[in-house]
Amino acid sequence: MSAKLLVTGGAGYIGAQLVHDLLVAGYQVVVVDDFSTGHPEALYRVHALTGRQSEVFRGDISDGRLLSRALAGVDAVLHLAAYKMVGESMVEPERYFRNNLGGMAQLLESMHVAGVSRIVYSSSAAVYGSQADPQRPIDEDAPLRPENPYGFTKAQGEQMLEWMAWCRQWSAISLRYFNPVGAHPSGRIGQPQDGAASLVPRALQAILKEDARLQVFGTDYATPDGTGLRDYIHVVDLSRAHLAALGALLDTPVSRGHQIFNVGTGRPHSVREVLAACQRATGIRVPCDEAPRRPGDVACAVADPTRLRRELGFEATLGLDAMVTSAWEWCRGNPTGYGPIEPRAPRPLPLGRGSLPPSAAPTTQGRIK
Ligand code: WQD
Hints:
Blueprint: E1 4-8, H1 13-24, E2 28-33, H2 40-50, E3 55-58, H3 64-70, E4 76-79, H4 86-91, H5 93-114, E5 118-124, H6 149-168, E6 171-177, E7 179-181, H7 199-208, E8 214-217, E9 229-230, E10 232-234, H8 235-251, E11 257-263, E12 269-270, H9 271-282, E13 288-291, E14 300-301, H10 306-312, H11 320-333
Bound molecules: UDP-4-deoxy-4-formamido-beta-L-arabinopyranose.
UDP-4-deoxy-4-formamido-beta-L-arabinopyranose is lined by residues 84, 86, 124-126, 177, 179, 197-199, 202, 214-218, 228, 230, 271, 294, 297, 301.
């Protein structure tokens, strides 16, 4: 019998790609998602794409009773559920502490009670903040200087896993995502661009929407073309990194302790290079204006991906053009993302108890638990 996995946040941007890949790999998958930023439609589409079903629990990871049901018979957890908007975290830090830290504390407790001791954790390059030498690729031993509550909660989450590994001999892997970009090659699942703060969805929206223009935040950085440098990684590669980490956890009968890996390509790209890639993918120049730097931005944030390659044999393979082309296929085919979470004709999700998304008519089968 294949391993059974719980994916928290499985209806989100990264989560849906990951659930897709886990189902394709033959795993049994359970999802917990409160659909606050994730979409039931993403899971409907993943089920259609794979021809397989995940078991879906709609709810908050702070709900211990829901987690105890979702964790039944689970071999490992992939924990992606979190609020992750840097700017929003500066405005509402307490919401980020409650959800990202309080929710994670409940998850760890529920995992312990259920006897689950393996976890892959979605961390972020935001834990690093500004480094002394901004041009130098960042390795996992770099000092952690989160510059916003979001990055702080990610660093604290890693610390919680450090203690679980030490006190309870858990096996945990934290993956520090750099800049995820792109969509599933089918164009059916991807990053909802409504409200997106990140560069690629905004640049593509500026192409799609008549009245939209992209602001280029800062053209006076000490970088080759004056714009910010980042390490963009295709969401398909990012998901593959989770499967590599999961395989290591499942293959190791004894505790591996807590390991931390950067997930990036090690290849920096500037804003102008990304905009040029958008023009190549769409044939349209991105309507944009130069603007002042965005508060909190660093000039350069690029991963040193050596440790992940050396210890788990993982390397990103997809380049910037593949990322932007897949993002464009998704954006063009789904100009409003998955559409509103509200009214939709519910389609079969796996049987179970519990409430449906709001205003969805009850169905005879396929309830979200
Ligand atoms: C990239 C570059 C901007 C928008 C964030 C989070 C990080 C991670 C990835 C979760 C920068 C420039 C952007 C725009 C622009 N998220 N830009 N105009 O800030 O590197 O990282 O997302 O884990 O934690 O901090 O990504 O895409 O916002 O910015 O000029 O409208 O694009 O200045 O140089 P960022 P980003």
